[in-house]
Amino acid sequence: MLRRLLILGGLLLVASSFYLGWWIANQPGRFVLKTVQMEGVIRTPLQMATEQMRIDKDANLLWVDPRTIKERLEAMPWIRSAWVRRIFPDTLAVQITEKIPVCMGVIEEKLHIMDEYGQPIKPFATGDTMILPIVRPAANKESAREVVWMINLLDRFPGLKGMISEAVGFSGKRWALYTTRGIKLLISENAEQELGLLMRLQEKYKILDRKIQQVELRIPGKVAVRRLP
Fold first, then answer.
1. What rounded mean pLDDT belongs to the chain?
2. Considering 5, 27, 192, 195, which has the largest number of Cβ atoms within 10 A of its Cβ?
3. Residues 76 and 49: beta-carbon distance below 8 Å
């Protein structure tokens, strides 16, 4: 009997302590959220990110759920991941990792900004000022991988990348690159060697600055140039 009374008394003490702690924590002015520290926001409008978190003014930090805030932020187009932590007594720390835009892509006849994994970030809209090449891979299940392959390829030739306005893929790992001056460059799966040869010719002869229409690079070790009519 005494043992039961002791157990019951212990449970009542725990319950009372919990209730007292809850009551104290919820008193006006206790753990009021005063500061939101947000880092890593580059392309996501800060005001939009703040509104997306949907935190009431003077919210009690104790009842702000970091997981809910994380899910809300990661639903935004530019945000890849969010890390959210409460710092008592009054601060919410948010660390954002955004997606990296690498090119433009065409999805259902609409232009989209694409990320480093070849996935769409958002439709291109008025006010988007980024100048990125358009990459149109051959229509197949590996299209995202081909976008990444092309961007990685162009990254190895920074002197050429700034000249490319569009890359169009065809079956058999063949591509046509179009420069901002309208020159068509034909490359194959051996594109790294082919573009390496092209850049050596550019350095020596300024081939891409001449009045030409097309450069055929798919013949091993050779380059065929078609002049403008």
1. 88
2. 195
3. yes
Domain borders along the chain are 30-98, 101-227
Q: Model-level pTM?
A: 0.82
**How far apart (Å, rounded) are the C-alpha atoms in residues 159 and 198?**
11
φ, ψ dihedrals at 70, nearest 5°? -60, -45
Please write down the HEC assignment for all residues of 158-179.
HHHHCCEEEEEEECCCEEEEEE
Q: pLDDT digit string (tens) for 14-60?
A: 444 444 344 444 544 578 899 999 999 999 999 999 999 999 888 89
Looking only at the bridges linking them, the beta strands covering 164-170 and 134-136 are: parallel
Strands of the sheet containing 101-107, edge to edge, are: 120-123, 110-115, 101-107, 134-136, 164-170, 174-179, 184-187, 212-216, 224-227
Homologous superfamily of the 101-227 domain (CATH): Cell division protein FtsQ/DivIB (3.40.50.11690)
| Nearest residue to 60 via CA among 85, 93, 88, 18 | 88
